[in-house]
Amino acid sequence: MASEAFLTNKIFLNAVLPLVKVIATDVPSLAKMFAKTHCIYQVSALDANAPCGKYATHFTVNNGEWKVCADKVATNAHIELEFKSIDTMNAFFKGKMSPATLPKMKGIAKKPKDFVAFMAVLLKMSSLLSAKEAPEDEETQKLMVKCFFYLLSSGISQLNKNGHEEVHDWASKSPDRVYAWAVDGYPEISAYLRVKAGKTRAGRGTYKRAMPFFTMRFDSLPSALGILLSTDDMLESTKQGKLIMDGAPEFGAQIGSFMIQVGAYAQG
């Protein structure tokens, strides 16, 4: 069975950090900062057991076009945040910042503007994922819900792929099924998870090959954020019609449990 530290790190590398692209391209003020950028960014954690001596996710940015290479080490990164261990990386991204958890920052002198732009995205991501209440403006609500949907679908898949006992047991016994998250009136804000023969694949947007087996659907963005930020009760939201379970309720409880587990890994 994988350790809690290892699973947490996989959540950050494969589910949290890929949100950098979403935020950098969806927020106009941030997108503008990368319009003329040519840079390879990397976030890594040193580990003697890793094939390359570290675990990492890197991004290639060319004139505002982003390519995400999750859980892959780049040997030619221009800018890198290198943590001493997966434990310090996990602590840093959970908000436990201290001199002991700060990463070594490489490449700042050669590309200071690119470094500032990347840090601006990381700070925006941190503010979204650590929010305690829903923002008032719709655009930020849309971005926040989208990021949480992507995080949850990818996070559950990562727990399965990396040996989380409960999630892996569930996936191994599941027939070919698709679970989805959606908000009424916002088809662009959706995500899904396909489970088949023990394997899982997270997807962004609407699953178009067939009707999802189960969809956790919200009547509005504030209703979605009430559940995602744990400020509303799931049962009460269901009674009030804010949360609609398109499928058997027991599957909603099961997916809800996995959502909570992903949140625990990503936020502590």
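Above is the first protein from milestone M3; the second protein from the same milestone is given next.
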Amino acid sequence: MNKDIIDTPCTMAEDVKAAIMSMADAKQAKALMRFFKTGKGDYGEGDKFLGVKNPKVRMVVKEAWKEISLEETAVLVKDEWHEVRLCGLLILVEKMLKSMKIKNEKDRDIECEKIYKLYVSLHQYINNWDLVDLSAIKIVGNWEIMHPEEDLMEKWIRLSDDCLWQRRIAIVSTWMLLRDGRFDSVTSRSELLLSSKQNLLHKAAGWMLREMYKHNGEDALESFLRHHIKDMPSVMLSYACEKMTQDEKSYWRKYKYALVE
């Protein structure tokens, strides 16, 4: 690692955590706690921040991910501090991307499966939207591309709103699927979130529908809107239509209002 971050080679979770904690900023921590809604009753209630911005966390990740073991990475993901958990998750992402480049198919599958299974086993610690969004796409999404028969996310998306982060992992991971032309996964999972009470799930579903539209999924989005627009929360509709022309947005708003009236 860079000498101004850590003095010894990073081979253990304690070293990585120490590197992140050395960059703590109390003022920034307070701002992050407000931004990520850590107050009583909020979605991030009780989360603890050191005040380390993502570029600095990524700097530690860059220096650590090749040497640290999966076991030690899991220790980071279980940590009490948000930025340490983020570091562990980003390390898992790097390990997943490297494993996907293994030429031998059997060896590649074994290594990727280790990372995927570890990731989903740690879901209770992936407990804020940034932690989900920066890790689920590359780990869960890529695993689902490799294994179309994988159905865990189909189970997670059907959980109750009490399992907010598992449901968000399940919808956000479809970003890789839609790039592979698997629009059905995006629309079916988004449909299951229509009745959710969680704004963060509405936003995530709208985001994935928007990405589907951007990746030649105009017809798929139009079909989804015609079937479900009456029940779509406003924020989901707004996100889904974000890349449309003003005339198209106006059309769908009027279409929704006409159905509601």
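Note on the second protein: Residues 1-10 have pLDDT under 50 and may be disordered.
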